[in-house]
Amino acid sequence: DVVKLRFMSQDGTEARKHNNKYYTSTVYTMRDIFKDEGIGALYKGCHVAVSGSIIAWGAYMYLYRVLTMLFVQPNHTDHEGNNTRDFAARSVVSIFASTTSSVLTTPIFLVKTRMQVEDRSKAAGQQYYTTFRSSFHRIVTTTGYLSLWRGLSAQLLLGVPNALNFPMYDTIKAWRLRQTHKDFLTNNEVLACSTVTKMLLMTMTHPLFVLKTRLQDHRSHLGEVKYQSLWSSFVTVYKRERLIGFYRGTVPSVMQAVPRSVLHTFVYEKLLQAQVKADGYLYRK
């Protein structure tokens, strides 16, 4: 996570280098961070990331499942057997749940970003983002409470494609269950369905993650290049780095996001199966 954010925050300018280095390789970046800042730097903000993920996923999954049960009626199939209306309804519910989760957790992930992109080396000078409390205090006292939601516009836009995660997964899952005439996916099928879903979503969302990271970086107003709003940041990245700039940090992002997403989905499926068996009710799309 640290390597991914530092990759995305760098734009080639001196103001946004880390330890006076411009990162180009995931392996060498991990080596340089370990060498310059110690092993602790690779886990900086870990507790904040875990807390934020628990709140974000908890809020999203609770709202998604409750609203799905209330408003989505299954088995709306067209003449080819596709659950088109069902997918659309799930997507709307998921977007609402994702948006709510984003508003709740943006301050937490803002703090996480600033903790992880700040150098820990002695050469970097004074550190302001060492703990959640000190980071929160620094942000509020220097830029005000509203700045805790800096980058929210990018996060809300991310909510739209990210909200397709479970509807896409549920659709692929339903297709597979119809093909196999089973009630549950096997472990390999869960792995395959969740990996395909996450890779498709990452292709759509990575540019927004880059923009959000540069907006939330505490150095966003430093140096010759500044990131002040979502649109101006988009124009800046495109003019200076072209399309490839929006996909900076793709490799560490895939290494971090795909296993995490697969694990989330795997645990979700196992808990769902356990609940279904305990209730004596077959949950089938």
Major beta sheet summary: none
Classify the secondary structure makeup into a structural class. mainly alpha
Radius of gyration equals: 21 Å
Compute the average pLDDT: 86
In total, the number of strands is 0
Describe the structure.
This protein has ten helices and no strands. The model is unreliable at 78-82 (pLDDT under 50). By secondary structure, it is mostly helical. It is 68% helix and 0% strand. The two termini are 34 Å apart. Helix 3 runs antiparallel to helix 4. The relative contact order is 0.13.
What does this entry show, briefly?
The protein is globular.
Keywords for this structure?
single chain, mainly alpha, 10 helices, globular
What's the topology here?
Layout: H1 2-9, H2 26-37, H3 46-71, H4 84-117, H5 132-143, H6 152-162, H7 165-180, H8 187-216, H9 230-245, H10 250-279
Helix pairs in contact: 3-4, 4-5, 4-6, 4-7, 6-8, 7-8, 8-9, 8-10
